[in-house]
Write a structure and sequence with these properties.
4 helices; alpha/beta; globular
Length: about 140
C-alpha cells in the first residue's frame, strides 16, 4: 500500500498496488482524470507544523513527488525544524519497516535544500541524491 499524490497513486494502481492520494483540488480536469481512473484520493493541504489527517490505514511506502508543500509563507523552503515535525508525523502513517521517498522541487535559488538540511536528512538515515531523499525501513525516522 502506498500513500502518494493522486497522480503517483494512479501509476501504483496500474502496477497492481493499492494506494491513496493526498492532494489538493485545484484543477477540475485533474479531478476528472482521477475519478476516471478510480483512484482513491483525499483532499488535504500539508501545512507547516500541522499533523496530516487520519488516513484510516498505514502504508508500506509514502511518496511525495515534486513537493510544493515544503514552502513557508515567505516562499523559502522548510528547514530541519519543519522537516523534523513532518517526518515524525509520518511515522504514525507507516507500517513497521515502511519507507518514505521525497522528490523535492528546487527553491527560488535553484537548490533543493541547504547544506544544513542535507546534513539533517543524512543524520536521520536518509540517502540523498540531488532532489531525491529516501528513508528506508523507518531507520531515518527514529527520534534522535
Amino acid at each position: 500500500m502506498a500513500a502518494a499524490a493522486a497522480f503517483s497513486s494512479t501509476v501504483c494502481q496500474q502496477l497492481g498496488h493499492r494506494g491513496l492520494g493526498l492532494d489538493l483540488d485545484w484543477f477540475p480536469l485533474y479531478t476528472e482524470l482521477i475519478d476516471l481512473f478510480g483512484v482513491e484520493r483525499r483532499i488535504a493541504e500539508i501545512k507547516t507544523s500541522e499533523p496530516l489527517p487520519d488516513l484510516g490505514r498505514k502504508f508500506d511506502w509514502i511518496t511525495a513527488f515534486s513537493t510544493g508543500f515544503n514552502r513557508k509563507a515567505d516562499k523559502t523552503l522548510w528547514g530541519p525544524t519543519e522537516w523534523d515535525f513532518f517526518l515524525n508525523d509520518l511515522k504514525r502513517h507507516l507500517h513497521p519497516g515502511g519507507h518514505v521517498f521525497l522528490g523535492l522541487n528546487p527553491g527560488q535559488n535553484g537548490w533543493f535544500y541547504t547544506d544544513e538540511l542535507r546534513d539533517f536528512f543524512l543524520s536521520r538515515g536518509a540517502s540523498v541524491e540531488r532532489e531525491r531523499v529516501l528513508f528506508r525501513a523507518l531507520q531515518g525516522l527514529q527520534e534522535l
